[in-house]
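Quick one: structure for this chain?
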Amino acid sequence: MDKDVTEWSSLASSSNCRCELQTPQCDAVGSTAVVAVVSEDKIVVSNCGDSRAVLCRNGVAIPLSTDHKPDRPDE
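Got it. Here's what it folds into:
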């Protein structure tokens, strides 16, 4: 079953990507993700795209990541 899911996912993704890249709106296509691994004494976060990780401590928002955007000079 894992093999079938992997093959289907690969086929679906590649055909969708080809179609999206051929449209004039392709610059509006993107992906975002935020992952957090929490242990007793650490929080490790990773992000991609313009999604962000935020910690709330005593009602104060503390940013844990920086947005990744193509219009940023450092990108």
